[in-house]
Amino acid sequence: MGIENILIMALVGAVAGWLAGLIVAGRGFGLIGNIAVGIAGAFLAGLILPVLGLSAGGGIIATILHATLGAVILLALIGIVKRA
User: Fold this and answer.
1) How far apart are CA 10 and CA 12, in angstroms?
2) Which of these, 20, 26, 25, lies nearest to 69 by C-alpha position?
3) Domain range spanning residue 62?
């Protein structure tokens, strides 16, 4: 994995974290925290969604959608754990 791939993954994760923060308003961690969750969510989505057979196609938009879905799931899980 080259530096370009890492930078693209971080950028996609940042956008996904921002979008996830908008989707699950009130459960976020601020802009920087949501970006970090977005990067982790992008990684999570990259691992889980292909195993489940979910795919939105190729390209940057599909990648952002996958990462956003992963970040929303991660924010929801963190919110549940935080309440308990």
Assistant:
1) 6
2) 20
3) 12-83
- Whether 63 is covered by a domain: the verdict is yes
pLDDT tens digits, 48-83: 888 888 776 778 888 888 888 888 888 888 878 887
**C-alpha to C-alpha distance for 6 and 27, rounded to whole angstroms:** 27
pLDDT tens digit sequence for 11-51: 888 888 888 888 887 666 777 887 788 888 878 887 888 88
CA 76 to chain centre: 12
Provide the sign of the torsion angle of the four alpha carbons 40, 43, 45, 47, taken in this order.
negative
DSSP 8-state symbol, 58: S
CA distance 45 to 56: 12
Residue 44 lies in a domain: yes
What is the count of structural domains for the chain?
A: 1
Q: Give the CA radius of gyration of the chain.
A: 12
